[in-house]
Amino acid sequence: MLKQLVRSGKLAEARCLFDAMLHRDEVAYATLLTGYAAAADFPSAMALFSRLRASSPPHAAADPFVLSPVLKACASAAAGGADAGTLLHAAALHAFAVRSSAASSVFVSTALADAYAKAGRLELALRVFDEMPCKNAVSWTTLVASLARAGRRHDALRRFAEMRASGVACDSHACAAALTACADAGLLPRGRELHAICAKLGLDAVPYVANTLATLYARCGDIDRTLTAVSRMGSRDVAAWTTLIASYLQTGRAEEAVEAFVRMLRDESSNSASPNEYTFSAVIAACANIERVCLGEQLHAQAARRGLSHARTVANSLVKLYGRYGRLSAAADVFRESIVKDVVSWSAIISGFAQEGFSEEAFALFSEMRHHSSCPRPNEYTLASLLSVCASAAAMDAGCQLHALAVVAGLEHHAMVRSALIDMYGKSGSMSDADAVFCNRTRDDVISWTAMIVGHAEHGHSKEALGLFEEMCHVGLKPDHVTFIGVLAACSHAGEVELGLRYLNAMNKRYGVEPAKEHYGCVVDLLGRAGRIHEAQELIERIAADERDGVVWTSLLRACAARGVHETGKKAAERVMEAEPWGSGAHVAMANLYASKGQWREAAQERHLMKQKGVVKGAGWSSVEVGGDDRGVGVFVS
User: Fold this and answer.
1) What angle, rounded to 10 degrees, do the helices at 207-219 and 172-185 form?
2) pTM for the full model?
3) Which of 8, 204, 463, 467 ranks highest by number of CB atoms within 10 Å?
4) DSSP secondary structure string, 76-145?
5) Element (H, E) at 434
6) What is the Cα–Cα distance from 157 to 149, expressed in whole angstroms?
């Protein structure tokens, strides 16, 4: 009866039955201790073990089957983040095992090594393992898993090789632990060797191993082998479905991630694979990548029905989804309602307000985050979001403070933070500070080089921007589409028409970057500034129809207005109005063009048409920091 209650997880009833027993032998103690170990209830396990020792003779030998579940409960408590007292208990149990000659038991030694490893004392775990007189598959698996968990993946794989050489048969758990080490280290060739071993042993269809194989291939970007690994399972559990959905997401196949989730729900009744918080987190993130906010709301409702909407991973994905698409009220509600908030939670909500231009709210949240007792230091995403706010507002003082914070947090050399700092200093008018950040880099990356090129291009330093581009290619970095926007803008500012055209032609042929509407807009602007309006129009007509949006036509319209080219300007204005019917730019440009030609009636008609459509030209505005120590931001309008 005691065993049945423990197996059912009814530990309170099991304890009542245990206390009511007239005679309690070591089997009864071991049974109840096993239940406490499975429930990670170390205090109860330790109290029961102390009760047993108090009722036993002082020098009585310890039963390994009694001591090992106490150590397992200790390991579970350590893995759950228990305090330093857990380590002291492990050391005390170790001393008792040595004194009572129980340390020679493979069960006790294995549980002890696991407790030390999970308490963060891997060197003690290794010493216990090396002193074991005999080792079984569980001992080796515990060692391999502990090394992998501690980040010593190569040592984990070396120990796995020792296990095979010692003649101990590999089971599914040992193979899965070694595969986890390969996945964490990105060692695909070694992982494929282990896959072959698993296949020879007939373990590759075991769900635990198949899930680990799928994780390995997913992290290495091999979606086909991920699918193959998952398909080897007779029936997919929740881990398999979640790995599959996450794999689609990581490889940019968000639509297929959503489709896989739908299939999982259809199969839910037949195989009991109900989605958990990690499944919902992955599929909501997929919705964010494909602009399916409505579907994300439905998934939010599904998660709420299952009691998962307040889970940290789900809440973080929801905040990112709502924040990315301007649904800040919904994002803030989810954020405030989430019970546990980590640095990802704070970064997501701050980023949402920052990208929508709500700088005061973003900084207020950041201040709240820093005063929050349970939140760690800001990460690179937090700082990059706030630096982008400083860049858009040219708030250099706040940006300098964030720079100092990045230095303190050890994040100033992170590519994302470094590029955000360069952008902030550049847009605040201090390219010298941007140069200083760039020159202090510890490694080269495309983002930082691109930020410098764009910064110099925006400041009209065309020679420096183009020189940096050539140097960037020389050090072996491949430019991306943002890099070429800076390069073409630099050519436009410098009037280097032929060079700009050469770069446009080389983008696809030499660098493998397909020109987009932004690049064509830069070249149209380049040709227009040079007065080559006809060539600019021909270039627009040559590009794909879906790339001919308001950006390229606006560039042509500006050039026509500057040069007084009436007919082409009128055609460009019509195209801009089709793309942006409520925009005022095309109407104002045409009114100015008519006025420059002395066609006052047509100019007045254009203004009247604006009034009829309800199009209002936005007033120009700017801001400036004023005051001394208690400075504020003053906004003024023209």
Assistant:
1) 10
2) 0.70
3) 204
4) HHHHTT--THHHHHHHHHHHHHHHTT-TTSHHHHHHHHHHHHHTT-HHHHHHHHHT-SS--HHHHHHHHH
5) helix 431-439
6) 12
Q: What φ, ψ does residue 339 adopt, rounded to 5°?
A: -75, -45
Residue with tokens 């649904």: 327
Start-to-end CA distance of the chain, whole Å, equals 85
> Who's near 67: CB < 8 A, 6+ residues apart?
49, 93, 96, 97, 102, 105, 108, 111
| CA 30/CA 478 separation, integer angstroms | 63
pLDDT tens figures, 146-177: 999 888 999 999 999 999 999 888 889 999 99
| 552 HSE (CA, 13 A, CB side) | 23
Long-range contacts of the stretch 419-422 (C-beta < 8 A, 24+): 419/384, 419/445, 419/447, 419/448, 419/450, 419/451, 420/383, 420/384, 420/387, 420/388, 420/391, 420/451, 421/387, 422/448, 422/451, 422/452, 422/455
Confidence at 478, pLDDT banded by 50, 70, 90: very high
Question: What is the C-alpha to C-alpha distance for residues 67 and 115, in angstroms, rounded to an integer?
Answer: 13
Hey, what are 415's tokens? 């590519």
Alpha-carbon torsion, ordered 144, 150, 152, 153, to 10 deg:
60
Residue 612 pLDDT grade (very low, low, confident, very high; cuts 50, 70, 90): confident
Q: Is 625 helix (H, G, I), strand (E, B) or coil?
A: strand
Q: What is the pLDDT of residues 115-132, one digit of tens each?
A: 888 888 889 989 999 988
User: Which residues have a Cβ under 8 Å from the Cβ of 116 and sit 6 or more positions away?
Assistant: 87, 90, 122, 124, 125, 128
Provide the 3-class DSSP secondary structure of residue 624. Answer: strand
Q: Give, in degrees to the nearest 5, the angle at Cα 380 between 376 and 381.
A: 95
Local structure of 545: helix, strand or coil = helix
Per-residue pLDDT of 317-366, as tens digits, reads 999 999 999 999 999 999 999 888 888 999 999 999 998 988 889 999 99
Q: How many CB atoms lie within 10 A of CB 534?
A: 11
Alpha carbon distances (Å) from 10 to 15, 32, 36: 9, 11, 10
Cβ(514)–Cβ(507) under 8 Å?
yes
Q: What is the pLDDT of residues 441-471, one digit of tens each?
A: 888 889 999 999 999 999 999 999 999 999 9
Which letter does DSSP use for residue 637 in this model?
E
- How far is Cα 572 from Cα 468, in angstroms, rounded to an integer? 34
- Structure letter (DSSP) for residue 19: H
E strand or H helix at 491, and its extent?
helix 481-494
* Per-position DSSP letters for 286-307, written without gaps between them: HHHHTT-HHHHHHHHHHHHHTT
Q: Which residues on neighbouring strands pair with residue 635, listed in sequence order?
A: 623
* Total residue length of the chain: 638
Query: With contact defined as beta carbons under 8 Å apart, do 260 and 248 qualify?
Result: yes
- Residue linked to tokens 């039955």: 17
Facing residues of 636 across strands? 622
Q: How far apart are CA 453 and CA 495, in angstroms?
A: 17
